[in-house]
Request: fold
Amino acid sequence: MRCLVGNGQHRGRRKRQEDSFASSDPCDEAFVARAGFISVLADGMGGMARGREASSLAVEAILEAYAVKSEAETVPAALKRAFIRANEVVFELGREVGLPGAVGTTALAAVFFEKQLFWAWAGDSRLYLWRRGSLHRLTEDHNLATRLEGEGVSPEAIARNPEREALTSFFGFPAIPHLGLSEVPLPLEEDDRILLCSDGLYRSLDEPEIAALLADDPRRAGEILVDRVLAKKRPRQDNVTALVVAVEPCPAFSAGLFSTLAAGARRLLTS
Reply:
């Protein structure tokens, strides 16, 4: 199998872009053989200080920490270690600027390794699997609504709670309150598409809309998703980021395929 990568990003109606994303170097064949291909997305928390800086540091720290994965270390163990390290970096940022505990970001990472998908997250950025036209959410939002649902509170009562979207886990604490980690890898199939996105996307598009748009060329799907969000012209549109990775038939990851995409997949875009 090989992966095709596409992305899209816009600041929406916000003054600043506080989403960040990046991927490992798909042309590094030694790294791909040892650790696979990793994509990371982070959404700096607009209600807190230094959101953009926090998200950028988190993405960089996850990639750097995961990059030292050895052949003996499992992917879940490497992801957990990388998330713990990135949280330390974000927490330290808060301390350095005199705002301990007041700097935060969500984080989401997906690893494609040996025809399997692994993932980890903290917060409410989401990971979706698109397979044969159907969309499946692979992450659970770390927010008050999810906690209340788990406690048996009725959907009606949750909908009335003004704090339902408040996050219960993110980077910026001395320790991550709750780290989501895939218990078992997901076997990948040809033509699967994996979507990493910030809440600015899924709060504007419903799942049938997202599923329909992911059927397009994966190299353009991220841009198409973002364009559809912007076309709705919501007055308080949040930052929106979509990172799409499609699994295509090939015996191995192809460095040549990625040669024209690597720069766009690695850089952090700001619109």
In short: The first helix runs from residue 29 to 35. The radius of gyration is 18 Å. Residues 251-271 have pLDDT under 50 and may be disordered. The first strand starts at residue 2 and ends at 10.
